[in-house]
Structures are given as C-alpha cells and as structure tokens.
Amino acid sequence: MGLFRKAKTPTPRPIDPDLARADAALAGLNAEMAARLISLASKTGQIEPLIEAVEAMSKANALFTHSSITEDHVRIQKALGDTLLKIGRKENDRRALEASIPAYRGAITVASMLGSSQLRSSSKKNLALAHNLLGHDPVADISSPFAA
C-alpha cells in the first residue's frame, strides 16, 4: 500500500567560503574566551567564569565544522565538566553540578563527531554521575529531558 511516501532529501546548499571563515573565526574567539574565563576562575576561585566558559564553548561548538574542530575542544569541555562536578560535589553546589551537564553533553557530541570513544565514554559516565547527584535518574524515563 502507499501509506508511506519517500521523503525528498533536500539538496545541500553550497557553503559560502566567506561565511565558513567567519564562523571558524567566531568559534575560535568563543573558545579563546572560554580559556580566559577558565584562567579567571582559577585565580578567583569563583564558579561564575566556569559557567560562562561552558556557554562560550557551547557557542563555539555550534559554529565549528567537522573539519575545523579538534580533540582539544573535547578535552576543554570535559575538563570544564570535571571541574564543575568536583566543585559541586565538594561544596554541595547545585549550580556547579547543573553547569557540568551541558559541558559533558558538548564533550560527548564533539567526541562522537571525532570518533574519540574513550573521551565520549568517560564524559557519559560523569554526566550520569552529575544527574545522579542532582537526584535525576536518566535511565528511568527515556523521554526525560535529563536522558543522556
């Protein structure tokens, strides 16, 4: 029967080289801003710069292409998540734990793009730990917004 129709695959638009260069430059600036925020956090001992660094890396990830992203970005995001998770556990800081989640998700996404299974696996484990510490059970409900 004709219940299912084959969907037309949209034809990919050619990428404007100027736009690609601008995106790469903007992504690099966001990654640089994240690095400076991490440095600021290490000097001040505050978590706000770390949370801002997670947001900057998230913006950078949205602009990177498969060919321009590196494993360093995975390591930075995982390190951000690890630091926030450690602070959250040590100081019982819910904001730090909540901020670790997008850092780990970004690391998982980029590690998957790059085929880095070890970084992906360790980020997934720590993401699950952050969820558990927040009282979420990502396995309980597959439709949960907290599912990994």
Description:
The chain is mainly alpha-helical. It has one domain. Helix content is 70%, strand content 0%. The protein has 5 helices and no strands. The protein has helices at residues 17-44, 48-63, 71-91, 94-114, 117-133. Helix 1 (17-44) runs antiparallel to helix 2, helix 2 (48-63) runs parallel beside helix 4 and helix 3 packs parallel to helix 5 (117-133). It is globular. The model is unreliable at 140-144 (pLDDT under 50).
Count of distinct structural domains: 1
Helix content: 55-70%
Describe the biggest sheet? Answer: none
Distance between the termini: 38 Å
Helix/strand order, N-terminal first: HHHHH
Count of runs of 4 or more consecutive helical residues: 5
**How does the overall form come out from the CA principal axes?**
globular
Strand content: under 5%
Category by helix and strand content: mainly alpha
- Sequence stretches where pLDDT stays below 50 over 5 or more residues: 140-144
Look at the structure and give the mean pLDDT.
81
Number of strands: 0
Radius of gyration: 18 Å
Question: Brief description of this entry?
Answer:
The protein is mainly alpha-helical and 148 residues long. Helices cover 70% and strands 0% of the residues.
